[in-house]
Write a structure and sequence with these properties.
This protein is of the alpha/beta class. It contains four helices and twelve strands. It holds the Pfam family Thioredoxin.
């Protein structure tokens, strides 16, 4: 089958907002793809594409339905905060390139690059997704020039401390893995993917800056 076709899914909307134009990032939504029993051996799915080497497992196109989930409102400072993964945005730094020392709120310290959230390549991510895991896998697609990605990274680092023994957090630099990010339908930044250790469960995707409470809710209730 054509792996570039959209897949069946469920759209979770945390905020009632007017739908943006194509290729414009959305704030606070997540897509839960639904995979048929025949596809249950590999639950990875995105809004339209998946890992290239395993794309043949994806089902045909279908529609989506809207469902609300409990989540705290996005703080005012974070509203409308996202970046577009487009050729016009890439290469225009809005934050310092070496913004990796991320402060963990409440911890009184800064965390060095890759200390808790390791940066992985497309190949490494595929191995993690396909391999056997006992904990959920959370993947942060980001860019160093994207301000909202830095804010999201702070929450991700906080969660990496909180779920140190019960979840695995990794990140993918979309500048270094641009084609792969496009194949994964990453259009808005930051984009998070959540993979359950249960191979029979679907992957969950969020796009844009979302509240840390929503991330916790997905980890604890959706995976």
């Amino acid at each position: 089958p054509d792996w570039k076709q959209p897949v069946k899914g469920v759209l979770f909307s945390a905020h009632a907002r007017k739908q943006p134009k194509p290729l414009t990032p959305r704030i606070g939504f997540l897509l839960v793809p639904q995979i048929s029993p025949a596809m249950a051996s590999f639950p990875l799915a995105s809004a339209a594409r998946s890992l290239p080497t395993i794309a043949s497992h994806l089902p045909a196109a279908a529609t989506t339905r809207s469902v609300s989930i409990p989540a705290s409102p996005v703080p005012a400072a974070k509203n409308a905060a996202s970046c577009s993964l487009s050729t016009t945005s890439r290469g225009r730094p809005t934050v310092r390139r070496n913004a990796a020392e991320t402060y963990v709120p409440g911890s009184g310290k800064y965390i060095a690059p890759d200390y808790l959230v390791k940066k992985v390549s497309a190949k490494q991510l595929e191995e993690l997704v396909r391999g056997e895991r006992k904990v959920p896998l959370i993947v942060d697609f980001y860019a160093t020039w994207c301000g909202p990605c830095v804010l999201m990274a702070q929450d991700i680092e906080t969660l990496a401390v909180e779920y140190e023994d019960s979840a695995l957090f990794v990140k993918v630099d979309t500048d270094e893995e641009y084609e792969f990010a496009r194949d994964m339908q990453v259009r808005g930044l930051p984009t998070l993917y959540f993979f359950s250790p249960d191979q029979g469960k679907d992957a969950v995707r969020t796009e844009g800056l979302i509240p840390i409470e929503m991330v916790r809710n997905i980890i604890e209730n959706e995976l």
